[in-house]
Amino acid sequence: MTDQEKQRDLLAADIVAAAVLRGRFTLRSGAVSDYYIDKYRFTTQPALLARITDALLRHVPQDTQRIAGTVLGAVPLAVALSLRTGLPSVLVRADAKTYGTARAVEGELQPGERVLLVEDVVTSGGAAVAALEALREAGATVNGILAIIDREDGGAQRLATADVPFLALFTRTELGLGGS
């Protein structure tokens, strides 16, 4: 096993230890699960967030001009990746505000800019698709979607139809989590 593989395995174990809760949970998709991945538990711990950001760095497409994160869960990921890459970031709301700028995408974004969308946990892919559509409506060219965890509940398949490369650092299976 290489050092990089050991580091990846250790990161996976640390994410599970920090963020996987057992019980009965209703997910955003409406599905019921016997575990919940509390993304705030891995995005609010500086040392763990730094290691996740290091893992993400390897997968940022060369032509990326901005990093986008969905509100609220992926904001720390997008900001951390922005700080590490020096690329500016934007934040994508599920729904546009009804006051102020009334935008779904917050921050400066120029039409045609190549944007990497960062997600925390992908289940059905609904939040990522909504963010992708908001970015496209704002004039962005989304060059990839990069997630921390794919729950393997149809999100990757749904994103495949969006004509944007999708990659998750870890899948539910790789983290040793059971069914949905």
What does this structure look like?
With 180 residues, the protein is of the alpha/beta class. The protein has a domain at 52-171: Rossmann fold (3-Layer(aba) Sandwich). It is built from six helices and eight strands; from the N terminus they run H-E-E-H-H-E-H-E-E-E-H-E-H-E. The protein has helices spanning 3-19, 39-43, 46-57, 75-85, 126-137, 155-160, and strands at 20-26, 32-37, 66-70, 89-92, 105-106, 114-122, 141-150, 166-171. The strands form two sheets. The chain has a six-stranded mixed beta sheet with strand order 5-4-3-6-7-8, with helices on both faces. A two-stranded antiparallel sheet has the order 1-2. Strand 7, helix 6 (155-160) and strand 8 (166-171) form a beta-alpha-beta unit. Helix 3 (46-57) packs across helix 4. It starts with a helix and ends in a 9-residue tail after the last strand.
Please indicate the percent range of residues in DSSP E strands (runs of 2 or more): 25-35%
Text of the CATH class of the domain at 52-171: Alpha Beta
* pLDDT averaged over residues: 94
User: Can you give the helix content as a percent range?
Assistant: 25-40%
Give the low-confidence spans: none
CATH topology of the domain at 52-171, what is it called? Rossmann fold
- By DSSP (H or I, 4+ residues per run), the number of helices equals 6
Major β-sheet strand ordering: 5-4-3-6-7-8
The name of the CATH architecture of the domain at 52-171 is 3-Layer(aba) Sandwich
